[in-house]
Amino acid sequence: MPVEGGSSSGSASAGRHPKQKRKAHSLSIRRTNSTEERPPGIQRGDMLEGQDSKLPLSLRNNLLDLFGQIEREFENLYIENLELRREIDSLNERLTGDGQTIEGGDPTKGALKAKASHSTSQLSQKLKTTYKASTSKIVSSFKATTGSRALCQLLKEYVGHRDGIWDLSVTRTQPVVLGTASADHSALLWSIETGKCLLRYAGHAGSVNSIKFHPTEQMALTASGDQTAHIWRYMVQLPAPQPPPDVSALCDDDQDSSDREEGEVDGEGPCEVPTVRVATATLKSHQGVVIAADWLVGGRQVVTASWDRAANLYEVETSELVHTLTGHDQELTHCCTHPTQRLVVTSSRDTTFRLWDFRDPSIHSVNVFQGHTDTVTSAVFTVGDNVVSGSDDRTVKVWDLKNMRSPIATIRTDSAVNRISVSANQRIIALPHDNRQVRLFDMSGVRLARLPRSNRMGHRRMVCCTAWNEENQSCNLFTCGFDRQAIGWNINIPALLQEK
């Protein structure tokens, strides 16, 4: 997570102590003895002689071993695919033969032959499914997208931060603007339609790790690596809207996603933007990085989550500490409040998330949930009675508040999941991943789509957070990442659900 007091990209990446996001996910390859693959009497060193390379011989030997193992795995898959294809062809011939026999055969035997043909057809279908699954290990898919409707359209790119963006949020009051929190010690407010930066908050002395807006007033709450959370007021004026760009792409999960060359986003930050440097209130009872903060329903209290393993509850008007919520065994990673009730959920590196109940002033109950096997990166409430949790164990789980002994749905992915969000109206879960993907699922765990990621659009580094905006009868999804930019998307919800 963001570094305490860090400002550069290097310091920001070093500061993700509890999560170590920048580490490479190494490919796990079974080690075998590959000496039998070489001709007798020829050593690996002899094979490498005469090849111009500056790599040490031992390193080159290891590379040869690894590439040899990869080649054998592909060869085994290829042979398996050929055998499956032959079996499918053989079954197809048997099906054709059975059909000819039934046409001119004894009517009393027709039912038996039809039953045998049906069983053979089921086996054939099963083999075809297995064949498709095995070939997907080599390539994702070669099939072309069939739909002509654009499921999502690039709305705008918001470029101006000088370091990675950890969090983003959309205001709940007019004017509706986008807020981003960055490791460059600043939070920026943006015009959603034009992509223009409207205001900069520069009151923190460390990485700004989260941003949330007051439910009814023009106030923002930011958490920082300087061990404080700030409440500050803003006043912005929206510029005249511009026509949307004519860029669209299908959100099909089989779409090719060629990577553009990784590099830094050009831009030296917003120029001549109004800047707020003084907070209305400073909350400073933590002894470690404040990683997240949120408003309780009504906006009179806020909760903060810290690397000191505690969450704090404050009165907004007096900045007074009301409660310290302890119990997590390791650093906290996120906190979230219920939209209509006095409930708080905190997540932690200890693989758990906790539900805190403040509805009864005399009783502050807590429930612990242990559904993950690695760091719980975020847990969020939905408008209904659900909690959705995401983890570094590459799973997302949907829980029912009325019975949270076990999840009602589990989503398994191929990459660690960061700060998720759930749309209020359609209850669609947006998952940001370490591998730069953003995927959409429904509450039952059915995959709906994947946002485009190519050399023309999408993030070039890990995606840290997602946020929905469903105002004005449109549905926008915003994403931010360590590539210093935020991206807005128009999501065609009716088409998306119809594709489902």
Number of strands: 30
Mean pLDDT: 80
- Strand order, sheet with most strands: 9-1-30-29-28
Poorly predicted runs of 5 or more residues: 6-42, 100-117, 133-149, 252-269
Strand content: 25-35%
Shape: globular
Number of helices: 5
Helix fraction by DSSP (H/I, runs of at least 4): 10-25%
Describe the structure.
The protein is an alpha+beta fold and 500 residues long. Helix content is 18%, strand content 32%. It contains five helices and 30 strands. The strands form seven sheets. The protein has a five-stranded antiparallel beta sheet with strand order 9-1-30-29-28, with no helix packed on it. Strands 2-3-4-5-10 form a five-stranded mixed beta sheet, with no helix packed on it.
Features:
single chain; 5-stranded antiparallel sheet; 5 helices
SSE topology sketch:
Blueprint: H1 9-14, H2 44-48, H3 57-104, H4 110-135, E1 152-159, E2 165-170, E3 177-182, E4 187-191, E5 197-201, E6 208-213, E7 219-224, E8 229-233, E9 248-249, E10 275-276, E11 281-283, E12 290-295, E13 301-306, E14 311-315, E15 321-325, E16 332-337, E17 343-348, E18 353-360, E19 363-369, E20 376-381, E21 386-391, E22 395-400, E23 409-412, E24 421-422, E25 428-432, E26 438-442, E27 447-450, E28 463-469, E29 476-481, E30 485-491, H5 493-499
Parallel strand pairs: 5-10
Antiparallel strand pairs: 1-9, 1-30, 2-3, 3-4, 4-5, 6-7, 7-8, 8-11, 12-13, 13-14, 14-15, 16-17, 17-18, 18-19, 20-21, 21-22, 22-23, 24-25, 25-26, 26-27, 28-29, 29-30
Helix pairs in contact: 3-4
